[in-house]
Structures are given as C-alpha cells and as structure tokens.
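Reminder to self: tokens first, then the designed residues, so the page reads top to bottom the way the pipeline ran.
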C-alpha cells in the first residue's frame, strides 16, 4: 500500500493507472476509520481494479467553534485497517498541501447547501464541495464512494458532479450501525457511557417515523414530525437541531408525505452533534 502525501505524486500515480486502462475507485474520508468507512472501502475494492482512500481532516468544512482541533485521529489503526482490505494507495495530504498560503478558490453550493445541516453549519457544504473537487482533480477516479450516513452530502456531491460536469460515478453506500442502531461515526468517540446509551434515540426516532409513514395512519408531515420530535425529547440528554421529512433528490419539504421520502435529523447528545437519516420507500 503506497502512502502519498503530495497532489503532484497522487496525480502521477493515478495517471499511470489510467493509461494502463485500469479503473480507479476512490473513498474520501477524514480518518478515525470504523466499520462504516470500511464497508465503503470494501465495496470500492470489489468494484474497481485500484482503490484509493484519502484521509484529510478538511478545515474549510468546520465552523469557527466546531471540533476541527479535536477531531479524532488514529493514523496507525487507519493504516492497518486499509492494508487489511487491500487498498492500493492512501492519499494523506497536510493542510498546507491542500490550502497553501494565500489560497482563495472555493466551490459555492447554492440552494440545498444552505438548508438542514447547511442552516446550522454555514459554509460547511462549500468546504465539502471545495475539498471534494480538489480531491477529484487530484485522484481522477472513475467512481467515488460516499455513505448514506451523510445524506445531504450525497445529494450535494451528486448535484455538484452533474452541474460541474465531472466524469465520475457517485456510488452511495448504506448506513452501517452499531447493535443498538446508532449510526457509526468517528464523532461517537466523544460520547461518554451515559451519552452513548442516550444516542440510540436517533435511530429509534427514525424507525418510529418510518413506521408511522408506512402504516399510512399519518400523512401530514407536521404531525409525523411532531411525534418524532416528542420521542427524541423524551431523552433528557438530547437536544434537537432539526427533524425534517424531505424528498430524496431535492431535499424539498412537503406538506403531505409521499414515498420515497427521507427522514433526516441532527440531534445533540450532550455537546456532540450527531446526524442520521432513513429512507422510506413503499414496498
Ligand atoms: P467521514 O470520515 O466522516 O468524512 O466519512 C467518510 C465517508 O464515510 C463519508 O462518505 C461518510 O458518509 C461515510 N460514512 C461515515 N459513517 C458511515 C456509516 N456509519 N455508514 C456508512 N458510511 C459512513
């Protein structure tokens, strides 16, 4: 497994593979890898000749009072996990490599970049779109793999790829969960024991919302939302950032729920902000 730290070397590596006619699968991550990441990496390994994984904690997608400085890191563990999955190369740039002094070019995501997570985290999706663009131009993959865990991110990236004409297929992989339903996340490491137990309220609330919609008893979005909200509020350590039921492609809020729909939520457990979602499709 090659470890590459500069954009120039990364491009040279990818260019060589492409001239050999091999396909490149790419999985961008911020490291502290868990089973959720690894399931995506395995999918890429299965579907491509060569799999490249990037690990870069991207400062431009964090707000000024967010956790950029304390974001979990596990370099040794990450390398061991990727090696065991037969990843071909890891791209590990530092901040100065990605954003040299005087850096000033950004990708701006209008519309859907400003709602849901974008409403509470202004500039987050501009930072995501900027770094993903840079990574795409550096790694030059045929396919790029993202997790449904970050639902809005998958919609933003798919739209960006269409609108900026990237010749890359976006593959969205299912959410990997802990035994109690909590979506795996590097940020789960912030939770203490009591918070960790409380955090299962997110997936419980999503399952409950899905059941309500599937039963056909409730169709009014506002009613379903208030029931989901009440369940989350029954957990004393939880405070809601948002709960919404949206269309799968444009994230539009509808008055009456029609399937397919996605229930998306962001909830703070203590000081840790967690996100999760569930797709509701009719049978
Ligand atoms: P991150 O390191 O958090 O930026 O995540 C890197 C990629 O892994 C993103 O595409 C995430 O959506 C995906 N991912 C993170 N957690 C999970 C999970 N529990 N299940 C599936 N994909 C995930």
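Designed residues (283 positions):
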């Amino acid at each position: 497994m090659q470890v590459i730290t500069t954009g120039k070397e990364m491009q040279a590596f990818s260019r060589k593979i492409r001239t050999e006619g091999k396909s490149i699968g790419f999985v961008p991550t911020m490291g502290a890898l868990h089973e959720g990441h690894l399931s995506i990496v395995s999918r890429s390994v299965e579907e491509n000749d060569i799999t490249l994984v990037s690990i870069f904690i991207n400062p431009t997608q964090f707000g000024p009072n967010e956790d950029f400085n304390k974001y979990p890191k596990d370099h040794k563990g990450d390398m061991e996990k990727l090696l065991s999955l037969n990843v071909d190369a890891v791209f590990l740039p530092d901040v100065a490599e990605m954003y040299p002094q005087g850096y000033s070019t950004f990708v701006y995501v209008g519309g859907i970049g400003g709602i849901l997570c974008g409403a509470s985290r202004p500039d987050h999706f501009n930072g995501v779109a900027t770094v993903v663009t840079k990574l795409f131009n550096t790694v030059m993959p045929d396919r790029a793999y993202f997790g449904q865990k970050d639902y809005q991110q998958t919609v933003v990236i798919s739209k960006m790829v269409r609108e900026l004409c990237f010749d890359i297929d976006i593959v969205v992989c299912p959410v990997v969960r802990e035994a109690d339903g909590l979506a795996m996340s590097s940020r789960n490491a912030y939770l203490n024991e009591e918070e960790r137990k409380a955090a299962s309220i997110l997936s419980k609330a999503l399952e409950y919302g899905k059941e309500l919609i599937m039963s056909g008893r409730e169709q009014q979005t506002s009613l379903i939302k208030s029931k989901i909200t009440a369940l989350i509020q029954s957990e004393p350590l939880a405070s809601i950032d948002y709960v919404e039921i949206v269309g799968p492609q444009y994230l539009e809020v509808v008055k009456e729920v029609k399937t397919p729909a996605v229930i998306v939520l962001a909830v703070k457990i203590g000081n840790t902000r967690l996100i999760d979602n569930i797709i509701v499709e009719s049978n």
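The mean pLDDT is 97.
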